[in-house]
């Protein structure tokens, strides 16, 4: 299974909204990949920004897989990939 960049953004929005007690529509996310730091996401909530590292992003993806697809995956089953955009590859 492959999650698109939009689904990764949705997963992070939902995850951060639950953690911060706001609506998912109040969360803005920008994904990035840098050679030095790897995958990351900058998240803006109520005018404040926060950076998530790859492990935080995967945690959000795991919760999204469970809530949206009823799939219980483990960390080692999810790998972020970069081709033309960032995707998540889920092996079951």
From TrEMBL:
Matching entries from InterPro entries are given as:
Uncharacterised_YxcD
> Which superkingdom heads the taxonomic lineage of this protein's source?
Bacteria
This protein's name: DUF2653 domain-containing protein
Q: Which organism is it from?
A: Paenibacillus xylanivorans
């Amino acid at each position: 299974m492959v999650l698109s960049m939009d689904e990764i953004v949705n997963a992070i929005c939902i995850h951060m909204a639950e953690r911060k007690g706001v609506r998912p529509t109040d969360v803005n996310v920008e994904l990035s990949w840098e050679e030095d730091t790897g995958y990351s996401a900058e998240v803006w909530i109520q005018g404040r920004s926060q950076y998530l590292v790859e492990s935080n992003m995967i945690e959000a993806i795991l919760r999204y897989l469970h809530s949206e697809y009823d799939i219980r995956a483990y960390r080692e089953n999810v790998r972020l990939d970069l081709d033309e955009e960032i995707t998540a590859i889920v092996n079951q």
